[in-house]
């Protein structure tokens, strides 16, 4: 039977690259994100190029009811999900804690922690019913270290790190694999979102060194997902060669 991957945040960056890689490998896909036009376009492209089936489901992961209604509303055949890539996430702002924008904090907590939980709550139950599954959580080097002004974003990714460990323990007896992939700097729309559309400032983040690209992470996620069923990669940190720690980038 053709395998199914559900990828959240497939409208850009790492999620979009994962959609390409899993389609290339013959998976049918459920793609989610808020920008439905992008989802529809991507679905048509992947269907055309790889002859795979693609379902799209457009919702905001922060909205618990939308998550439940949209996912549970999918036809039964789509609930045979083999791989869930919990990728939807973002950073907002880069301010010291005393000046932090509280709306930004709420957005990051609601998206990166609560959104990931809402999706996982639904899909882990499908996986338990199916008797198989693999959940791959997008953490970050920000979930392993804390950097200047990274405060709340780092806290949300530390939470993902903890949830990843907790999920693995809770789902152990159901044979469900659980992995976290923690990237360093990847050039996507991430910095543009962090700096609220300020393209100049976003570009400077990647000045003078070669960052990772979304494809690097997607191929890594595919490697993790394609190990034999008895192998689980718990935790994987992947950095650009020019980046040693969150705050140590060698720029020429
Ligand atoms: N880029 C990096 O340097 C880096 C490093 C480490 C970890 N990460 C993590 O990797 C993941 C993907 O980031 P990226 O770099 O690919 O960024 P990106 O290019 O900005 O893509 C983020 C994706 O998340 C989706 N998303 C954001 N908020 C959402 C919401 N409320 N509801 C539904 N979907 C939402 C976006 O879709 P819509 O806007 O269409 O909803 C988009 O598809 C994130 O979890 C991020 O924290 C990134």
From TrEMBL:
<dbReference type="InterPro" id="IPR036291">
    <property type="entry name" value="NAD(P)-bd_dom_sf"/>
</dbReference>
<keyword id="KW-0560">Oxidoreductase</keyword>
<dbReference type="InterPro" id="IPR020904">
    <property type="entry name" value="Sc_DH/Rdtase_CS"/>
</dbReference>
<dbReference type="InterPro" id="IPR002347">
    <property type="entry name" value="SDR_fam"/>
</dbReference>
<protein>
    <submittedName>
        <fullName>NADP-dependent 3-hydroxy acid dehydrogenase YdfG</fullName>
    </submittedName>
</protein>
<dbReference type="Pfam" id="PF00106">
    <property type="entry name" value="adh_short"/>
</dbReference>
<comment type="similarity">
    <text>Belongs to the short-chain dehydrogenases/reductases (SDR) family.</text>
</comment>
<dbReference type="GO" id="GO:0016616">
    <property type="term" value="F:oxidoreductase activity, acting on the CH-OH group of donors, NAD or NADP as acceptor"/>
</dbReference>
